Known about the structure:
By secondary structure, the protein is of the alpha/beta class. It has one domain (9-74). It has three helices and five strands, in the order αβαβββαβ. It is globular.
Amino acid sequence: MQIAKDARADGFELRPELLPPTMQLSEVQNLRLHLEMFSSPPIYSTPHSIFNEGRFECEPLEAHSLDCRLVKFSPLEVNL
């Protein structure tokens, strides 16, 4: 995040596969504090498709807990 701040980026894109698999509440709160330093809210970028077996996929819970206002889905399902 420091690189993005130094580059004067407006916001930050979060990728769940780059976050620790189990985050404690204090870690989530700390991350939110760092993300609030950017002028634009963070984007949650998921490797999953917006559709799951022909049904619309709901917003990932992590996106809400990190105060992301935009979720970017992959055009194709990516298995990690």
